[in-house]
Amino acid sequence: MESPDNKNAQKYVKSRSQSPVSSTAKGVVRHISPLQALRNNSGHRDELKDSQVDKNKVFQKFVTKENTKPQDFKLHTKERAVKRALFNYSIATKIYIEERQKRQLEKLHKMIEEEEVKLLRKEMIPRAQLMPYFDRPFFPQRSTRPLTIPREPRLKQVNGKCSATSTSCRVNFPIFNAIK
């Protein structure tokens, strides 16, 4: 016994073979006119004529296309969101590390300053001074440094510049001419 699926397949093949459109195994379809189908079925006396017509006639080949299926498209928003999250995380870690280093430096500076203050406080403790020797009287000694030599101020013209008291510049300044 034959299965019902096999019977349906044979009926389908028979019905397809009788239709004016026949197909090949490659999926290429050629169109046969209804008159040619009748001639092929009616007898073999016209077979010679048909074979001559078939050689001269160019058959049109139609390519059957499968139904197009929509492809899944991928938005880059999720990828960009992940990349942005990683970037934000890296920036946040950099900022955290920098702040931590700043806090450590400030703590170190503060400790150094506290140590310096402790040392200064130890130095600033008032200590008793030694008592002067009263058994030897104090005699001041004369300094061995030479005395300073007094100089007159140089009010003359130096390097082409005019001074207020020079006579060559008084021509330009009428106020000094009135002082004479």
Automatic annotation (TrEMBL):
<dbReference type="InterPro" id="IPR027329">
    <property type="entry name" value="TPX2_C"/>
</dbReference>
<keyword id="KW-0963">Cytoplasm</keyword>
<comment type="similarity">
    <text>Belongs to the TPX2 family.</text>
</comment>
<feature type="compositionally biased region" description="Polar residues">
    <location>
        <begin position="15"/>
        <end position="25"/>
    </location>
</feature>
<feature type="region of interest" description="Disordered">
    <location>
        <begin position="1"/>
        <end position="51"/>
    </location>
</feature>
<dbReference type="Pfam" id="PF06886">
    <property type="entry name" value="TPX2"/>
</dbReference>
<keyword id="KW-0493">Microtubule</keyword>
<feature type="domain" description="TPX2 C-terminal">
    <location>
        <begin position="73"/>
        <end position="148"/>
    </location>
</feature>
<dbReference type="InterPro" id="IPR009675">
    <property type="entry name" value="TPX2_fam"/>
</dbReference>
<dbReference type="GO" id="GO:0005874">
    <property type="term" value="C:microtubule"/>
</dbReference>
<keyword id="KW-0206">Cytoskeleton</keyword>
<protein>
    <recommendedName>
        <fullName>TPX2 C-terminal domain-containing protein</fullName>
    </recommendedName>
</protein>
